[in-house]
Design brief:
The chain is α/β, with parallel strands linked by helices. It has one domain. The chain has six helices and six strands, in the order αβαββαββαβαα. The protein has a six-stranded mixed sheet, with helices on both faces. The termini are far apart.
Length: about 180
């Protein structure tokens, strides 16, 4: 891990991260696997958000950050920067070392969606940091967000309900899928 980051080295790190983002996008295209962050608005719609819990400060694993609230296309799924316009902000964050304020994120079943702090997450991941401080708002949903849902997120709401019914006995007829409160 670096102890002293100069403007030139931060710029070099950003350029390498951008190249890796391009490579990640090419590999995703060739394999058919998504390289995009999950978009919170899509997740919110498909999992039927029922409400939110109060915001709390905690340390979260960077590996559990899977999406974004508003910037789904700006970073790859591994939080590599896609756009050259991010260079100034990204290098400024890296040069600040780890003296960053906490990020803000929504949590659904131990998966996190960044509301504020995308560049901090990107730099932290590139530096090999495993956890980051975050103000977390827990989001309650009818359908759990588990690994199967993450892997096949393009599934229809009906498919998500079928998976849920295996565990809870709920079906789309016992709890209509069209109901839900969007935060």
């Amino acid at each position: 891990m670096m102890n002293d980051v100069t403007g030139k080295s931060a710029t070099d790190h950003f350029r390498r991260a951008r190249k890796r983002a391009t490579l990640e996008d090419v590999v995703a295209h060739l394999t058919g696997k998504p390289a995009d962050l999950l978009c919170y608005p899509d997740v919110r719609e498909k999992l039927k958000v029922e409400g939110r819990e109060a915001r709390v400060l905690q340390e979260i694993p960077l590996a559990a950050i899977v999406g974004s609230v508003e910037r789904c296309c700006d970073f790859t799924r591994s939080f590599l920067p896609r756009k050259p316009i991010s260079q100034h902000r990204w290098t400024s964050v890296e040069m600040a070392l780890t003296k960053w304020p906490p990020i803000e994120a929504y949590e659904i079943d131990h998966a996190y969606f960044v509301l504020d702090g995308h560049h901090r997450v990107s730099v932290a991941r590139q530096r090999g940091i495993s956890h980051i401080h975050a103000f977390i708002t827990e989001v309650c949903t009818r359908v759990p967000l588990d690994a199967a849902v993450l892997d096949h997120f393009e599934a229809s709401p009906e498919t998500l309900w079928k998976r849920r019914s295996c565990y809870t006995g709920l079906t789309a007829t016992t709890v209509p899928i069209s109901e839900g409160i969007t935060p």
